[in-house]
Design a protein that fits this description.
Elements (H helix, E strand, L loop, with lengths): L1 H32 L9 E4 L10 E5 L5 H13 L1 E5 L10 H13 L18 E7 L7 H9 L6 E8 L7 H8 L4 E2 L3 E4 L8 H11 L2
Parallel strand pairs: 2-3, 2-4, 4-5, 5-6, 5-7
Antiparallel strand pairs: 1-3
The structure holds flavin mononucleotide.
């Protein structure tokens, strides 16, 4: 009898542990499968909706697994102006773990991955929303290339980012240091996983708080 009980308990334990394992693996796979949305493309000349007089508005973003892209599109649809993705010449690994390793190496080497030419002239804009994910507790190195290559003096920069726990990780202050002549406003950090649901209310209250 005792043996039977032990066997039944072992079988239940196997099912529970196996099930948990499957859930974890599924989650990892979900994360690996996250990708950019090809229907979200660059846009030019959306009617400006901000309370910023005739300022020319740009929303520019870097995103590899699609979360920041979604947030950028949401912001762009609310504020209008132009909308453009920052792309590197190099292609990052699509495998999540390989991407994590690659980004770590880039950070350790203080790399400046080359960017594809932007199809706009940054000089045309006064107010620039800039979005990126947190990679290894800071901006991806591609963002450092952007700030090295372009002059943001006298522009208003409004940062936003996605993350999985690090918040903004001091990156708004980093941007102000990289661009001392720009006016960097308070940014918006949103957890990447939260982008599966509508984040409009967070974006609206952030814009309201900024007075725009
Ligand atoms: C290479 C890499 C490094 C990451 N490092 C961090 C980190 O340090 N802190 C954090 O909160 N999230 C980290 N994340 C999670 C991302 O910030 C989060 O998934 C983000 O929403 C991804 O944005 P994307 O989908 O626009 O590429 C990292 C993700 C990757 C791929």
């Amino acid at each position: 009898m005792n043996k039977v009980k032990i066997i039944i308990i072992c079988l239940i334990a196997l099912v529970v542990v196996g099930g948990l394992g499957a859930v974890i693996i599924k989650n990892i796979n979900t994360e690996e499968n996250q990708t950019l949305d090809s229907t979200i493309t660059d846009e030019q000349g959306k009617e400006a909706k901000l309370n910023l007089n005739s300022d020319k508005i740009l929303v520019i973003y870097f995103s590899e697994t699609g979360n920041t892209q979604k947030l950028a599109k949401l912001i762009s649809d609310k504020v209008g102006g132009d909308f453009i993705r920052i792309e590197t010449e190099k292609v990052y690994p699509t495998d999540y773990n390989e991407l994590v390793d690659d980004a770590k190496k880039e950070k350790e080497n203080d790399d400046r991955p080359k960017l594809k030419t932007l199809n706009i002239n940054l000089d045309d804009y006064d107010t620039i929303f800039i979005g990126y994910p947190i990679w290894w507790y800071q901006m991806p190195m591609a963002m450092y290339t952007l700030f090295d290559n372009y002059d943001f003096a006298d522009k208003t920069i409004i940062p936003f980012n996605t993350h999985e726990g690090s918040g903004s990780s001091g990156t708004y202050e980093d941007i102000q240091k990289l661009e001392p002549k720009a006016k960097v406003l308070e940014g918006l950090p949103i957890r990447g996983g939260d982008m599966v649901s509508d984040q409009s209310s967070k974006v609206d209250s952030w814009l309201n708080k900024l007075g725009i």
